[in-house]
Amino acid sequence: MSATRVFTSFDFDNDEDLRNLLIGQSKHPDSPFQLSDWSVKEPMSGDWKAKVRRRISATDLVAVICGHYTHAADGVAAELAIARELGKPFFLLWGRSSGGVRAPRGAENEKIYEWTWSNLKILIGGGR
Questions:
Q1: Rounded CA gap, 2 and 13, in Å?
Q2: Tally of domains in the chain
Q3: How many helices (H) and strands (E) does the chain have?
């Protein structure tokens, strides 16, 4: 199976650990999916939206990892808007086990999926 190119959108200031966890899980031998990480791994300067647009356009889908402050993260809202403009499919993933997880601006009415192997398999493509 070829790897699905995924842009992971997350609150860089608060949830980088969650992105690292998702990438790490995709490398486990028993993982039900393969993932090629196209996320932004460090703060970008200059016209960061153009850089993000190029990365998102090169991917198959966008995974938005939702944490406690995702609803206030301007970068996540911008990345989601870019994904929509480009017609990229996306899904929201419940990132924290404790309550208070909220969707980013612009996706308040979207379902946030539980972070399970079976959901990831379907959402990332192994179950299609």
A1: 31
A2: 1
A3: 4, 5
Q: Which of 39-43, 73-77, 80-84, 100-104 has the lowest mean pLDDT?
A: 39-43
- Which helix (H) or strand (E) segment holds residue 4: the answer is strand 4-9
Question: Confidence band (pLDDT; 50, 70, 90) for 91?
Answer: very high
Domain of residue 103 covers 4-109
For every residue of 73-107, DSSP letters joined together read -HHHHHHHHHHHHTT--EEEEE--SSS---PPTT-
Phi, psi (5° rounding) for residue 20? -60, -35
**Considering the chain, what is the average pLDDT of its residues?**
87
Helix, strand and coil in the chain, % to nearest 5:
35, 15, 50
